[in-house]
Records
---
Amino acid sequence: MYYLVIDIGGTKTSTALMTQDGVIVDDYVYTRDSKTYCGEDAVYENSRDAIVHIIDRFNVSMDDVLGIGAGCPGPLDTKRGVIIHAPLMRWKNFPLTERLKKDFNKPVALDNDCNLGALAEQRSGLAKGFKDVIYITVSTGVGAGIVINGEIYHGKSDSAGELGHISIEENGKQCPCGNRGCLELYCSGTAIKQILTEDAKKGVKALVFDMAGGDENKLDGKLLAEAASRGDSYSIKLYNRIGRTLGFALTNVFNMFDPDMVVIGGGVSKSHRFFHDELLHTLKSRSIIHVSDEQIVYSEMCDRVVIYGAYHLIKEFVEKGD
Ligand SMILES: [Zn+2]
């Protein structure tokens, strides 16, 4: 018997077949573009076809499938299985669970990708065995999933974990969310791109800009990491700033939750060797509670974290039998 899992992201959609004990069959994760901006039906059909691809590839009978676990960007109504608002996909009040149930005739469980990240890390990742775990993704944006006492903490309206929109500067940059100085405006992948583009326009001289060769599209987190590894002092300084910013944010997280462990994932976190020291230094010197080195780790599941989380979600949903 198997579980089907799907991770519908802003840019990519991934599907996999999982055994009952959480192994990805053939270590095969199928990934395709999400058809973002094509509208509700196109994105849904694209997602459904990605699941069908897995079924066909492994020639799975639906009788052998126990359920489908799905992760997508929030905000969601996890109880009704509805995506309240996903502007990137032009989804508004989209009944994802109902549609998947109708098409595949199997139980479906849905949660947001950050929550599933936290669940995956707490159930079978680096935070396995701990009760209180926060997962933070530093990617296109910044978000968090919170597991308290072994369960996902959703909040009153399924909206807990909006770490990226905690303000770190009262009169800082205007954020599309309505607030000012939001964390993700300073340390996300999008922020890195913006800072690099602005500095390039100002004529700042640094190796990272030479490496881009005047092509603005090349200015991103990946290039920044390359430049930093080649010793570019501008890039190293920018990473230090990011580390400090994340350290501020984590100070709030620790002061608020006193978690056993914080697991950091997402594209930007892959370059943690350039910002980890600064992050830890800021956190330790500012947090009111004692934080030890082992409490901050970087996800090893990386791009598969939502896949694993969706597996745990549907498995426990089916086993509970509700
Ligand atoms: Zn914001």
---
Amino acid sequence: MKKSAAFMMVLLLIAGIVYAKGYELNKRAGDYSVLIKIDKNPPVAGKNSVEITITDPSGKAVTDAKVVLAYSMPAMAGMPAASYKADATLSGNVYKAKVDYSMSGPWNNEVKIMRGGKTVSAKFTIDAK
Ligand SMILES: [Cu+2]
């Protein structure tokens, strides 16, 4: 009985590690707290799905904002500057967007949150593999 309980614990631990494979980061944008989740860890060159959860100072999920994810890479040897924008669409309490990093390397990302006539943003870098 004790042995099987220990075995179950190990199984749960492994399951936890497998499921926690997405890439996650927390940022602030103005008064909002922004949780960004990417389905791939590490994020890859090509398509990645991004989920953005925005919380106001009272801890309430923000669902009435317009959210855009802008991402860019400056020009480099053999590559002109690249700059893209993805509109995020609300699904439940989460804004979802798809990014398509056209090469591996560091990408500048900016979540722009437009609400009540104000725009605030959270910036972060993603190193696409
Ligand atoms: Cu590049």
